[in-house]
Amino acid sequence: MALKSKLKIESAGMFAAATFYAVVGIVFFALLVFDFSLVHIGIIGTLSLITAYGLLRKRSWAIWFVVILFLAATTVSAYTIYFLFGEDLIFDVSMAAYLVLTWVFTAYIAAKRKMLES
Predict the structure, then answer these.
(1) What is the DSSP string of 31-73?
(2) pLDDT in tens, 19-38
(3) What are the CA-CA distances from residue 32 to residues 38, 74, 108, 117 (Å)?
(4) Are the C-beta atoms of residues 100 and 111 closer than 8 Å to each other?
(5) Which of 63, 48, 102 is nearest to 80 (CA)?
(6) pLDDT at residue 9, rounded to an integer
(7) pLDDT above 90 (res 83)
(8) What is the reported pLDDT for 47?
(9) Which of 9, 10, 37, 52 could form a disulfide bond with 22, CB atoms 3.0-4.6 angstroms apart?
């Protein structure tokens, strides 16, 4: 007997955005384990997981979480790149990739926001 998923994926782009936010949430929680003083990382991780859920379930409120994460990710990434640039190449590249992917998926979700139910 095959299990049927209640999740219907109509758009590969929306699924990619949800996957991006889920992976970011998991990675940020993994970083939080190493240093509990990084509370802002935990908050961004929580918001990312909530956003991934909202995008997968096509909830209209997910666009607001995307906007909040866009502002938070841009601030944290730009600040981190500016002040820690040159100390660790892998960290610099990963923060730049996170920044660019956040912008790309925010633009995509804003363009496809009608796919989210009202």
Answers:
(1) HHHH-TT-HHHHHHHHHHHHHHHHHHTT-TTHHHHHHHHHHHH
(2) 999 999 999 999 888 888 88
(3) 6, 19, 28, 33
(4) no
(5) 102
(6) 63
(7) no
(8) 96
(9) 52
